[in-house]
């Protein structure tokens, strides 16, 4: 008999990290301790600041400045997501 629960895809929660820079983390996928690879992406803070500053001449700064971006940490070997730092 087929167990329906074993066929369902397993979703993994990506943990919240406070690091903006790469750090040492154990990857459960490739079973190695690695220094994470970081990727900066636009997040909710960028869009919230854009809407807030839309009528000011400096509204584009929220997309230009990296300090407002979210940071995603990945394993450099297998590219598995190891954590993320959301600004909001």
UniProtKB/TrEMBL annotation:
Bilayer topology: Peripheral membrane protein
Location relative to the cell: Endosome membrane; Late endosome membrane; Lysosome membrane
GO cellular component, one term: late endosome membrane
Limits of the LITAF domain: 6-87
Keywords: Membrane, Metal-binding, Transmembrane, Transmembrane helix, Zinc
A GO MF label: zinc ion binding
Transmembrane stretches, start-end: 41-64
Family: Belongs to the CDIP1/LITAF family.
Protein name per UniProt: LITAF domain-containing protein
Organism: Caenorhabditis elegans
Lineage, top ranks: Eukaryota, Metazoa, Ecdysozoa, Nematoda, Chromadorea
